[in-house]
## 1
Amino acid sequence: MRILALETSCDETAAALADISGTRRIHVRLLSSVVSSQIALHAPYGGVVPFLAQREHRKNISAVLAQALAEPAKRLKKYNSTPTKKQRTAPAARYLTYEPELLEEFTVLTEKFSSLIATIDAIAVTKGPGLEPALWVGVNAARALATLWHKPLVGVNHLEGHIFANYLENKQIIFPALALIVSGGHTELVLITEPGKYKIIGETRDDAAGEAFDKAAKILGLPYPGGPQISQHAQNGDRTFFDLPRPMLHSADLDFSFSGLKTALLYLVRPISKKTPTAGMPPYSPDHLNDLCASFEQAVLDVLIAKTAKALKKYRPQTLIIGGGVSANTELRKQFSAMITKDFPHTLLLLAPLSFTGDNAAMIAVAGYFSAQKGKFSRPNTLRADGGLDLA
Ligand code: KG4
Ligand code: ZN
């Protein structure tokens, strides 16, 4: 099945084209994956500004889509395709009331890539969770394209994308699996009996892990997004230098809480910098900055590892999947690998491929494939963006 996917849930505009096959063994041939990041635009605000994200998605989506189609179109000779007939644009226009300029851009694309478009079997798009104004751009674009090209449409849960990113490297999940999703908006432990069947067994009660990293970075005067910054400084710091709390480490459930940790960091930094504001102490001293980052990162990791281990003990899944933006964290990958080797040697650990830990459309194509296989299609006129969409 050839799937074109779009993703605009946060601050990356992404499109991908993939050939996916199989039921038990999944095979993915990624034809293209284009991600246009808005990080530089949002950085001065210290976080993603939803209406700016929406504006940028509108501005970029046609170019990102064109790029995702251009490479595969060059290699098209291999396919026997019938070019699409000249389409009427009026039925698609109704989905682009807020993005009218896209109609013209999509019409140009349709003519330029008609032979390749004819080979596409379905269009997948992230419908949630995420920033609703941002999500709508992708959803409207997908509704219009599905109408223009007469293709089935699949609405995808963004978190399913993070769960299945491993298939992009053709690594197979053995079910039942446990997924730890750690991103800017989510920290969830999910039991998966098969694609599409999820049970959330733990989640954050306040800040998500990535959000905690971003807020901590802000406190320490580091630029957005904070995760990679903290991770980098932490590599040269002492992880035991500062004593930070491990919220909910011993709670009976599998939930998380990170907002107290951020507050503890704030109180830790304040007195030091006030006492010796000019002595180059934290957050100004590079030495202590590294120690603060390392101690903070370790506090987050200790809780993530302990709760995941607890879930592994209780549910005994065959595979542990870790995905989402925070799974790019070097130390997280190292410490989870060590924990699995030591305590759960029979559990398969699948860390999201480093090139697909952050938001991308390739993972949305894979998640869309599973829905398409089950015939879970949406009609363009009923598909909606849902910022608070649940996984289960
Ligand atoms: O999955 P993602 O790209 O977007 C959401 O769906 O939220 O995750 C973004 C989050 C940000 O909070 C970012 O700071 C965090 O992932 N992140 C990291 C690292 N790289 C990105 N956190 C810790 N260490 C990293 N290396
Ligand atoms: Zn994400």
Note: Residues 2-163+357-373 form a domain with the Nucleotidyltransferase; domain 5 fold (CATH 3.30.420.40).
## 2
Amino acid sequence: MTTDALRADLLAAIDSATTLEALEALRVTALGKSGSVTLFMKSLGGMDAEARLLIAPVFQALREAVATAIEAKKTALEAAALAARLASEQIDLSLPAAQSPRGSVHPISQVMDELSEIFADLGFAVAEGPEIEDDWHNFTALNIPPEHPARAMHDTFYVRREDGEGERMVLRTHTSPVQIRTMMGQKPPIRIIAPGRVYRSDSDATHTPMFHQIEGMVIDRGIHLGHLKWTLETFLKAFFERDDIQLRLRPSYFPFTEPSVEVDVGYSIVNGSRVIGGADGWMEVLGSGMVHPRVIANCGLDPAEWQGFAFGTGVDRLAMLKYGMDDLRAFFDADFRWQRHYGFSALDVPTLSGGVGA
Ligand code: PHE
């Protein structure tokens, strides 16, 4: 084949290549080690000097032309590939959200967000602590020394330590150890809530081994039961979105509060089912009290100067009461149909101005 014919063939083939792979294959057939153009170049070695002087520029021009054509085609194909990718990855921002794949926010997450919103509005920060807790924070510092009967009430999960030394670890049985961690970690005045998972070895229709609590605590000067009552009333009204919420405070006992107060909320019977509000009957919703002076002292604060109140309640139970679910276990079954029915839209962000459960 003449160089002209080869050149015409190759340029035509390059021009009609539609993919980068096809183009690369062409490059190898032409310019590769035993490619057609390379063979021409190699044949120069067998020529005498005069002929070579004459022919070499022709071959070099051929190689040059083919290489340039391949390079140009490559750039064009790459640009086309990028344009196609950009077109396919485009997001249509005007697409209605209802058409996108649907997931839902679990009622517990939703209620946690509602609670954080309500308490943020009252000036409470969110505090956290570990779920694997040491015995001291979960019990002793909260005025529950070893052998205290309250320990038996907690059905604790114990965690074996690999090193077999040091303090015994437990899965925290309540969110109250966050009271201790917060008082030891920052200076009063303190206003915090601590939502999170807690664990007890208990399982039936109304108990699951893991459940959720939210703790609240205020430490300041001159804090008294009136502050506690106002805070709980304000919180429960905002949470249940009703002004006719009635509270009943009953004397109770927790080792870490003195006095201790159990709080019932009134319900009325509407069409045969319980609805929060009114006072046809009472349901216990939370435990609370004034933080025990010994607990304050355990955290290195002077109880003569600092007082406070604390409360704790079950988030799962609050969710059930507010959204009318009756089996606690369904919360953790991950049943898609249940989640679709009770779940919340991701766009349903709780805000006080919009109504927390809007
Ligand atoms: N920690 C208690 C419980 O789990 C609740 C509580 C918290 C009571 C704070 C009083 C004060 O039952």
Note: The chain has a mean pLDDT of 90.
## 3
Amino acid sequence: MTKLIIDTDPGIDDAMAIFYAAAAPDIELLGLTTIFGNVTTKTATRNALRLLEKAGLDLPVAKGADVPLMLPPFTPSAHVHGEEGFGDIPAEAPKGQAITEDAADFLIRMAREHKGELVVCPIGPLTNIAHAIQRDPEFVKNVKRIVIMGGSLEEGGNITPYAEANIYHDPHGADVVFGSGGNIVMVGLDVTHRILCTKEDFTSIAGQSPDLGGMLQEMSKFYLHFYETVGKFDGCSLHDPAAVIACTHPELFETRSVPLTVTCEGEESGATVVDPESLRAGTAVCMGVQSEKVKNLFLQRLALLP
Ligand code: RIB
Ligand code: CA
């Protein structure tokens, strides 16, 4: 059983990842922390609470940083995820609220309480993780692993030709994480662009899971439309679910261990770069994936939901 905290900016594929974690029998979800990216941190917090309530999970949600480590805030990616984060699904207030502890403090405390066992899966910009590392030098030693959705080694970017969106939105934060010496896995565009779901896949999910799967099908329409406009893919990428699946099924991914730095300025800002001169510990970068197996796991487990 993997003890997991997801750091998230929900977000359509974030919702897919969180519902997957709710369904997975090998995941013990301990809570969610929130971050800006697809939406503002305030909206991400509301959406995270709403997703947990929808899934019938009474778990802590800790609100994260409102702005990147050093850059001014970016405008949320409304053209990819909709104004409210869930495509055309209207905003709805959750019943519960976030805990008083902020995301970094919650992560630090949970890493201490579950020393050597906690896997942290950031599926948004890495600001909260960077804050946790900067506040507590023991944090990266206390966690078992940090499995990041973000970055790109050879695939090129998705928000600029050089950068993947999560890294682009806080390159300084990402650089702190890759330089932390922790046990870091990067699930980037090199693999997530090979794991695609189609309209028919979401119809099948909704057929088996009318409530939660139905919600994903509804929001997927907006996301699929965005991918159609990009024109390169036959479906939409399962970015964030792939990272959650990598937490429990590393055997489905081939990794390359490389020292990484992040470009923090200029045209290539947000690029994840192999930098042997940095003398940094290697990040395990996913470069190969058994796409069909990852996708089937996603489809099979979501079918278990109501
Ligand atoms: O580049 C893909 C990532 O950016 C995903 O985490 C998606 O949710 C967006 O945040
Ligand atoms: Ca995300």
Note: The mean pLDDT is 96.
## 4
Amino acid sequence: MAARQSGLIIPRVKLGTQGFEVSKLGFGCMGLSGAYNDPVAEEDGVSIIKYAFNKGITFFDTADVYGAAGANELLVGKALKQLHREKVQLATKFGISRTQSRDFSGMIVKGSPDYVRSCIEASLKRLDVEYIDLYYQHRVDTSVPIEDTVGELKKLVEEEKIKYIGLSEASPDTIRRAHAVHPITAVQIEWSLWTRDIEEEIVPLCRELGIGIVPYSPLGRGFFGGKGVVESMHAISSLKTSHPRFQAENLDKNKSIYDRVNNLAKKHQATPAQLALAWVLHQGEDIVPIPGTTKIKNLDQNIGALAVKLSEKDLKEISESVPADDVAGGRYYNGLDHFSWKLANTPAKDSKIST
Ligand code: ATR
């Protein structure tokens, strides 16, 4: 399989209109702490983050909920010690709290001002930094008016604990109301060739408000890299049991999507992962995807995707090779439909539900 090589300089772009400059490609650190595979050894996790930084990726994404007991933030914090802190754009998130249970039933969304405050203190400590560059609300707490949550985030900006505010999986109404309290710099949301439901409303809204978009799972959680198709499902047993698109019956249907993208990739001397990523990268200057990987080889390929140049005609052809109706299975994990941006509205400010 051909793969574009990555001897290129990673461009710098502005996310949002508040002056936040990042590398055009970010790095999603979640998988290093075992989202899809077993967690990597600490020294390997630190090495890959350092490698990415040395290649020009400076925008690193983590969250307090990734890994057991804050493991992913702790790992990123360790890696940061070996980088230039001021040259890194560090993004983390609060908002999903875990009970004892490690399965999805143990995930609770919280967004009260007190909770925000306790989370930032814990994240700063785990990361061992003085400030966070971009602090996202990971999921929207539908019982707390968004004005209250963002009001507290605004105080964190004033106190210089965070520089910029982001939202993840927020509805259009929530984005608009949040932005009225304090400028929102970025919205992180799923966007890839097989998950395109944000294109109608969220993308135009972010452009109208000057908010950057950070697509997560730009490789379809590894599907466009061949996971479950050319690579065994063994490596992604967590997806096999919990994600509709990777369940046997749906995956069988989805394999034809992979084949089509793979054929187009050959035409562009790229791997399917590179083509899928290049397609996301081409959606606009303000789009900064954060693919995750545990392997240097794949990281190099992802950087190489920046060298894949696609014309309008190419983009149309690639888009049309993955029609929404051909994608079998919902885009989000079984039992977590309520985590979707479509349901992420909050009560009006003066009608807070008492809990
Ligand atoms: P998420 O945002 O949920 O982490 P993603 O970025 O769409 O999802 O995909 C991450 C998955 O793609 C990981 O399983 C990663 O596997 P490895 O750790 O084995 O690399 C896989 N992946 C990332 N880059 C890849 C590439 N260039 N080729 C193949 N698989 C890749």
Note: The longest helix spans residues 248-267.
